[in-house]
Backbone:
């Protein structure tokens, strides 16, 4: 007690029944390490690797898929199209193989590789430049 007959505030709080000690409720400085939270990947960009990137991919078919897409270059947007609808839109869709890749900084992205569009008879740049006598790659 102080000289005027009142208790000090910190002792008054500790002496009240049912009120916890605030020091026991403080989190340690490394509280994030104790939580066990994993970073959730909610957005994956679809892009080509930049010139300075070192990129890794996995060879399994579960890490890649062939899709039909509408690419709007002016808006910078791409949309995957259902195969039934893509058959009705041969001039608007382009076929791509989306390959899951990761760069050296740990950024996961889908690498879009253009495929030949059989509906339009369009070939990619590598198929157009290949000499006629050169056999197609098998596999």
Residues:
């Amino acid at each position: 007690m102080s000289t005027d007959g009142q208790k000090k505030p910190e002792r008054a709080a500790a002496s009240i029944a049912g009120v916890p000690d605030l020091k026991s409720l403080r989190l340690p400085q490394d509280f994030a390490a104790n939580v066990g939270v994993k970073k959730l990947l909610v957005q994956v960009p679809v892009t080509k690797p930049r010139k300075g990137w070192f990129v890794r991919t996995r060879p399994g078919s579960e890490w890649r898929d062939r899709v039909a897409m509408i690419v709007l270059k002016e808006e910078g947007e791409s949309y995957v199209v259902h195969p039934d609808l893509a058959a009705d839109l041969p001039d608007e869709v382009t076929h791509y193989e989306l390959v899951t890749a990761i760069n050296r900084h740990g950024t996961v992205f889908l690498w879009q590789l253009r495929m030949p569009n059989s509906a339009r008879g369009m070939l990619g740049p590598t198929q157009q430049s290949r000499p006629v006598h050169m056999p197609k790659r098998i596999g």
Observations:
- The CA atoms of residues 41 and 64 lie 18 Å apart.
